[in-house]
Amino acid sequence: MKNYYPEIPSPAFILEEKMLRNNLEKLSYVSKEAGVSIILALKGYALWKSFPLVRQYLAGATASSLSEAKLCVDYMGSKAHTFAPVYAPEEFDEIARCSSHITFNSLSQFEKYKDICKQYGVSVGLRVNPGYSDVTTEMYNPCSPNSRLGIPASELADGLPNGVDGIHFHALCENDSYSLERVLKSFEEKFGHLLSSAKWVNMGGGHLITHKDYKPEHVIQLLKDFKKKYDVAVILEPGGAVGWQTGVLKARVLDIVNYGENPTAILDVSFAAHMPDTLEMPYRPNVRDAFSEKTEGCYAYRLGGNSCLAGDFMMPYYFKEQLHVGDTIILEDMMHYTMVKTTTFNGVTHPSIWIEHEDGRDECIREFGYADFRDRLS
Ligand SMILES: Cc1ncc(COP(=O)(O)O)c(C=O)c1O
Question: Which of these, 227, 192, 208, 224, lies nearest to 333 by C-alpha position?
Fold first, then answer.
């Protein structure tokens, strides 16, 4: 098996700076052509050592907690657009200090904190439930009728309360602009009466603008038409699209056991601890030089994680060559949502973080050890 990234020891998350720049260029093109602000959703991608590059292209970041808002101020160099389902009173002053915009999920939270927002000069928004989403996985659909996210239209029949500048919705997850068009139709039907008094509309995340099949010209026209019709500023806050296909998790085969129908290559990484979405969503990550489906003439191996969780494995992948202890396994597309969700479950060693710079230089930006595990627990 080929040893990809030979200078970088396994296990490691590796950001390819060039790929990140490609994504940022696509996002910035849409932003400029459509005349909208595109900001980074930190919940999806927060590798802050790469923010000097991100800042060249995007207009800031959106935060979903006090810590993310602080990260935005410290490393994006701008105040955050903040939305959280709820704000704790002991944190709110600091959130307001770190935010240019704050969106509330309920009228009660708006009433509770509106004076503090005024004091800090924060522009206030309300999150609404547009009532339509193409997202079929319930776990990721914020627009179901019983969703706790977003104020329903019935609560805003009398218009926007005094002191509210903006409206926020989030209804997409790795979708294209045609999904956005359908959401906008429903949003306008339910909330169109509020738009004459709004200064801005934040259309959330889930816009997979950096996917190869995404049609930038379609979204540009859609957003231009919307802005012209309602005379509002428009903000998009994708996370996944920024880190989309910008890097990998490099792993290594530490053992091969022959206990079941197929041999299992046990790796120096864990699906549970280092790629939790693969078990939670669930999805099968692509593995370089391996097929995900049964393929004649190939060797089948389950990939096993190094935690003790029985379910910490992936069903067989099909490799052209037999695997051996020491072989490199490259798990593709591991920059967005993966890194922000890792844990030190079982105390298994957390992969280090590397950047492959555009000039070919590899830089280790973080290594983890015992102290990282210990200090989270007491
Ligand atoms: C309110 C809000 N904004 C933005 C995002 C980012 O979405 P994505 O990373 O899919 O673009 C999310 C994701 O859950 C979200 O909940």
Answer: 208
Residue nearest to atom 13 of ligand 1 (CA): 205
Fold exhibited by the domain 18-243: TIM Barrel (3.20.20)
Q: Which residues are paired to 287 by β-bridges?
A: 331
- If you take atom 10 of ligand 1, which residue's CA is the nearest one? 206
Ligand 1, atom nearest to 337 Cα: 9
Question: What is the rounded CA–CA span in Å between residue 117 and residue 257?
Answer: 59
Helix (H) or strand (E) holding 251: strand 247-257
Whole-angstrom distance, CA of residue 206 vs CA of residue 219 = 13
46 Cα to the center of ligand 1, angstroms = 13
Q: Ligand 1, residues 127, 237, 337: which to mutate, most atoms within 8 A of Cβ?
A: 237
State how far the Cα of 357 lies from the Cα of 96, in Å rounded to an integer: 36
pLDDT tens digits, residue range 262-314? 999 999 999 999 999 999 989 999 999 999 999 999 999 999 999 999 999 99
Residues near ligand 1 (Cβ within 6 A): 41, 43-44, 62, 83, 170, 173, 204-206, 237-241
Q: Please, which residues bridge with residue 123 across strands?
A: 101
Atom of ligand 1 nearest to the CA of 237: 4
Helix, strand, coil share of the chain (percent; to 5): 35, 25, 45
Q: Which CATH superfamily is domain 247-334+342-377 in?
A: Lyase, Ornithine Decarboxylase; Chain A, domain 1 (2.40.37.10)
Residue-wise pLDDT for 68-125, tens only, equals 999 999 999 999 999 999 999 999 999 999 999 999 999 999 999 999 999 999 999 9
pTM beyond 0.90, yes or no: yes
